[in-house]
Amino acid sequence: MSEKEPWGVLSKIDVSQHIEKKNGLSYLSWAWAWGVLKQHYPGAWFRKHEDMGGLPYFKDDGGYAYVRVTVGLDHTGDNDVTETMPVLDHRNRSIQNPDSFAVNNSLQRCLTKAIAYHGLGHYIYAGEDLPQQDGSQSLSEARQTANQPVITASAIDMTPASTGAPTASVAVDTNKTPETVAAVFESFIPTCNDIKELGAFYTKNKEGIAYLEATNKELHSKVMAAFSKRKVELKEK
Questions:
Q1: What is the pLDDT, as a whole number, of residue 4?
Q2: Per the count of CB atoms within 10 A, which of 106, 127, 131, 204 is most buried?
Q3: How many angstroms separate the Cα of 106 from the Cα of each of 24, 48, 67, 88, 198?
Q4: The pTM is what?
């Protein structure tokens, strides 16, 4: 399955009849989105990531929680997309020590957004009203036009790169924790599709890597290991 095949199919689907609005924001029904994805790609699957204790969310030093979901179209790993989002309250604000209801809501939002990276409803996050009819945009381009993980909004300065890499230059903020920055790296590294893209992402984010090295050696080691692992995976392709 090539990268453009699923995008060309899913990005043309009009999801307007299944959009829900809340507090001025648009949301796509996760159940409908998953149903459509399975209709077109029966081998599709998703994974809700868990922390070391088996809980389906992660917490930073301030008690703020994040969820992470991976959606794949098959089991080759070629089309896997991982999204990370903060756990939000009804006002769409990050909350500390969330209850199970808030975590579940954020997991479903995260699932829907990960599906959008494959094309279905991506234009909602791009601020458009209707889908592109030519399906010309690729998955890598979608990762730029669709909003990147929300947790990066204040910790990361998102800038598109000419290489098409998922570029994020960490603007070190003393109010941000190493855990938050590491979570961003762990979310983006698997989205790099070749060695050149991975190298560009690493180079663009040397400031963030240095920040982790200075503040949390363990997290720095984990991020560097993630870069090395992805490099090996790409070389084996």
A1: 52
A2: 106
A3: 17, 11, 7, 7, 28
A4: 0.56
